[in-house]
Amino acid sequence: MLAEGSNAPQFTLDDQDGKPVSLSDYKGKKVLLWFYPKASTPGCTIEGQQFRDEFKNFQEKNTIILGMSADSVKSQKNFCSKQEFPFTLLSDPEKATIRDYEAIGLKKMYGREYEGIFRISYLIDENGLIEKAYEKVKPKEHAKEVLEDLD
Questions:
Q1: Is 146's pLDDT higher than 90?
Q2: Alpha carbon 13 to chain centroid distance?
Q3: Which of 38, 80, 116, 143 is 20–30 Å from 72 (CA)?
Q4: Which are the catalytic amino acids?
Q5: Contact criterion met (CB below 8 Å) for 44 and 52
Q6: Predicted structure pTM score
Q7: Helix axis angle, 42-53 relative to 142-150, nearest 10°?
Q8: Of 75, 57, 64, nearest to 26 (Cα)?
């Protein structure tokens, strides 16, 4: 995890519509950058639905929601459309930004080790500094947890 108070790494990635999005586009606003392992999987869907359901509350707190995974633009588009997400999903198939944010590493499943994307988030302040790092996120509780921190 990146340290709270450090500069958030800059990036420009394509969103679910294939349009380039940069972190610098949101200077002056808070950004919740949530990383998820794979679009349209159960945990990622639950987490995204929670953000969707709390979206207006994030807007009221001047906070942008950006989701990121290594899925293709097409997969992100399908995920976004199917779940009616009102926020942006970013595609990082090269995993360069995911690595910059230390959101990838060794995971274990069924006794087998593999490289995977961690379910973590960063709250980035209006000046591009990491205000809060969320490790070991619980999909059903995370949106409310972040909203409480925004109060």
A1: yes
A2: 13
A3: 143
A4: 44
A5: no
A6: 0.94
A7: 40
A8: 64
